[in-house]
Every structure is written in C-alpha cells, then in structure tokens.
Write a structure and sequence with these properties.
The structure is a single chain. By secondary structure, this protein is an alpha/beta fold. It is 44% helix and 24% strand. The chain has three domains: 82 residues, Arc Repressor Mutant, subunit A; 99 residues, 3-Layer(aba) Sandwich (D-Maltodextrin-Binding Protein, domain 2); 103 residues, D-Maltodextrin-Binding Protein, domain 2, CATH 3.40.190.10. It has eleven helices and eleven strands. The chain starts with a helix and ends with a helix.
Length: 297
C-alpha cells in the first residue's frame, strides 16, 4: 500500500467511476484498474462493487475510505504547514538511518532532489542492518530512517515506499535459459551465491529451499547485494536478490532476470519516524519529502 494507491482509491470513491477518476488523476484506466486490483489483493478484500452505472464502495471499502481520507489530509496539512512558513527557509542537521540496501539503492535519488530544494539542511547518515536502525530510531539516536519493513510498533509511524519480489539472476548465456518463471529446483542445480544467514532475504530464501527439500550448492556467502551481483557477473553462479536491486544495477543489461514460480514473497522497504517527532517541523519535512519522492518515482 502506498500513497499513489490511496489517492487512486479515494478518486474512484469520490467519482463513482474508474473512467472519471482516471481522467481526473491523469492516468490511463487500465493502469488505474491495476492499482486497485493490487490494493485489493494486498488487503485481501473487495473494495468496490462494480455495476453498469459505475462502482460503489463495499462496507470494508467505506472503512478504508475514512482511514485514507485521514492519511491524505494529514499529508496535505504537513505540506500546507511548510508552505505557510516558507518565508523562513528550513535549515538544520538531520540524523538519517538507513539499511545498507537503502543507502546504496534508495537514498541517492532522494538526497539529490532534496538538497537542491533545501540547501541549508544537512544530513548525518547512519548505516546498519534494519533491526539496529529501527532500535536506534526508537532511542532517537537517528531522527528518521529507511528500513526493511513492515515495522509494527506503537511508537513508530511507518509508511511503505517500495515493494518488489525476490528474483533469480544469472549472467546471460550462463547456467540458466532466458525463460521465466523458473523453479527453485532449477536454481538448485547450479552454483549458488547466497547472502549471509543473518541477512533478512536469506532468512526467506533458505526456508523456501528447505521446504522443497532442496540443497543448493552454495559457493560464496556475503551480506552485500553489490558483491553478489559482481560474482554473478563473473559467471561463477546464480543468485536470488530483490528485484529492485537488479533493476537499479548499472550492469543490469548483462543479466537475465527470472521470476521464481515457487517463491512469491514480497520484499518491502519503508520510512519510519518516532511519532512524537512529527511535532518537529524539520523532521516532518524530511518524513513527508521521502514519502512524496518515492510516491512520484
């Protein structure tokens, strides 16, 4: 669930029609339908009753609309709050916590955009695994963080930024044919480059192989996704990585991306902040700017 999906849902509920909502939101109707289908699948419920004259909200759809309105009103309030205070440019130093993956693949584009708009705001970055960053957010060692989600804690405000599947990656012309999807059994027949066991992705991958009673021939373990892709690029083996990491890699044209038929777990990254810190205007700005950046990507 992300901001764009909630805006789409709100637009359809307001207009009573996918067609009218698509026009108002400047999006094609198939793309809008796809967003809503994904949202319904994610929540595991039907949001609309389709009819010949348009659509109506289900009972659960009505409940979600109330929550959606509250969330979007809160975001709009934060934006307006800073517009009113625009006479004084925001400044200060923010301690930003990030997992290694977030620093490598998510943070650079945000910082490039944000520092152009707010040159008087500087950042001190803390890199660690997500569990440590979440703990340091709670302890206010860092102010705001991008971590592997979801995060469920009553003291923390969490919003998802990006979601993707785990995919298999191989070097073109090496080990695996250019077909998709493939199975874990096919992957297990080839040299395998794995994450260290403490890495969250590997804690998903290993049980998936075990469930199928498969034992891939692991040749190398590392905690770094970049290192894994470099080893695959050398033609030493195949690997399983989050899809967005492969899509953002500068050597992606050298690889083949394979969907995995029997591994459909979704990986999610999100932004967190301690709820009480949303009272701080500077930290509100950071939190909202991160949300807006990734909702528009």
């Amino acid at each position: 669930m992300d901001i764009q999906s909630l805006k789409a849902f709100q637009g359809i509920a307001a207009s009573g029609s996918f067609t009218r909502a698509a026009v108002k939101l400047y999006i094609s109707q198939p793309a809008l339908s796809k967003q809503i289908k994904k949202l319904e699948e994610e929540l595991g419920l039907q949001l609309f009753i389709r009819g010949t004259k348009g659509v109506e909200l289900t009972e659960r759809g009505e409940r979600l609309l109330k929550t959606t309105n509250h969330i979007l009103e809160e975001i709009a309030y934060i934006k307006e709050d800073f517009r009113k205070d625009n006479s004084k440019k925001p400044s200060g130093n923010v301690r930003l916590g990030c997992s290694t993956i977030a620093i490598q693949y998510l943070l650079p584009s945000f910082l490039a955009d944000f520092t152009k708009k707010y040159p008087d705001i500087s950042f001190q970055l803390k890199e660690a695994e997500s569990p440590q960053i979440i703990s340091e957010t709670l302890d206010e060692i860092v102010n705001c963080s991008i971590v592997l989600g979801p995060v469920k804690n009553l003291e923390i405000k969490y919003y998802p930024l990006i979601k993707c599947q785990l995919v298999c990656v191989s070097l073109k012309g090496k080990f695996l044919p250019a077909t998709s999807p493939i199975t874990l059994a096919q992957i297990s027949k080839h040299p395998f480059v794995a994450y260290e066991e403490f890495v969250k992705y590997q804690q998903i991958i290993t049980p998936a192989f075990n469930k199928k009673k498969l034992s891939p021939r692991t040749i190398i373990r590392t905690k770094s996704s970049n290192s894994i892709l470099e080893i695959v690029k050398m033609g030493l083996g195949v690997a399983i990585v989050p899809e967005f990491i492969l899509d953002r890699n500068i050597h992606r044209d050298l690889f083949i991306k394979h969907k995995i038929r029997d591994l459909s777990v979704q990986i999610e990254f999100g932004v967190i902040i301690k709820k009480k810190n949303l009272k701080n205007k500077l930290l509100k700005l950071i939190f909202t700017s991160i949300l807006n950046h990734y909702s528009n990507e």
